[in-house]
Amino acid sequence: MTRILLLGGTGDALRIARQLGSGHVYSLAGLGKVPEDLSCEVRVGGFGGSEGMTRYIESERIGLVIDATHPYAARISANAAKASGALRVPCWALRRAGWQPQAGDDWRMVGDWAELSAALAAFRRPLFTLGREPLAHLDEIPPQQFWTVRCLDAHEANPRARILAARGPFTLEGERALFDAEAFDVVVSKNSGGSATEAKLEVARERGLPVVMLRRPELPTVDREFADVAGLLEALRVLPQVARA
């Protein structure tokens, strides 16, 4: 049997994991809810860099690595490509397309936190949808700003920011209600792609709000890339000796 190591943490990865049988491993970094209804093994925690992942792949006799992590999880993607390459184990990656600006959009592209902070200087009520990263900068909030930070994990209260612990998908109606209640004047986002969190961009477009968009990181070359879950599952279907749920 070709034993699969599926690197996940996204909704797309969970869809793949639900198709895998007991001989395979679904690996999560540890953030968010751990699924309990899968046939495959669930592993939680890091590997210890590319060297640790190499040891794991070898000791567990993994025959295929699938990188279905978030598009901005560049480090784990690099580790997966390096580890699988060292052992000559095939590495596949799910690389969903990013969002594209549409008519009426005002996107301000930035490459890092310093550029992001400069782009926000003129605004007062930003909505951050970058995950946990803004939590490390709460002591840097400019005097004129009040932040709303939406991420998976709860966080202690802060007088200069509202921390929303929430998990997508987010509906258009729900996003409209949130924007009404908080009076945001700018949205801060990763270009994650997919439909689960896209509604915020539509609301920003409706209201003429700018979006400060963090550019996608460069990701390593792998043996096969897939634009969607359906294509990857079809490739698994014809792969010899893959145990399925």
UniProtKB/TrEMBL annotation:
Pfam families: CbiJ. Keywords: Cobalamin biosynthesis, Oxidoreductase. PROSITE patterns: COBK_CBIJ. Pathway: Cofactor biosynthesis; adenosylcobalamin biosynthesis. InterPro entries: Precorrin-6x_reduct. NCBIfam families: PRK08057.1-2 (NF005968), PRK08057.1-3 (NF005969). This is Cobalt-precorrin-6A reductase.
